[in-house]
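Need tokens for this chain, all 196 residues.
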Amino acid sequence: GFGARLPGGTYGISADWLGIPVAEEPALDLSADVSLTLDCSVYYLNVSADDDRGIALVDAYVSVTRVDGADAGGTGATDASGRAGFRLPGGTYDVSVVWMGVEIFADDGHELNGTHTLDAACAVHYLAVTAVDSASDPVKGLTVTVAGNGIVTNMETDGKGICEFRLPAGTYTVTARLQATESYQEIDQELTEDVG
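Here are the structure tokens for all 196 residues:
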């Protein structure tokens, strides 16, 4: 709280937080002791980052930047439930989510005028690779490498000859190796989605 002794009269009161005006009482008549509660335009913005299956993205980097250039945004990483929370003055913000070094969600000009959750349907998808031999039998233990968007990751096929990658949208090259056998195939996993 804040207290002050003032002579009787009419006063204008305003409050700033992080350099942003958040409350104003234009004409307060002070003719006796007054206790005033200012309803400030300060809200919670929770960003919930999920992939295309609705599964939470852990450790995604979330950036919230005020469009007027004021230093009142924030950054943070998503937790185990795919959420990152921010307490901000009301206004217009650009929100960005980056995962594995790739921007997977952007909401430019997001109006913050109340506490709410922004559901970030992120451009993260699944690439399933199935390996079979010439008799269409599954190939177990095949090392599959996926490369693209600055990402290189690999895994081995299971007993059914399958492995599945969770990746940001983009174009990837898939390489499969089993002993001295090598096969290349380019996979285009780039998807366009309207997020809003």
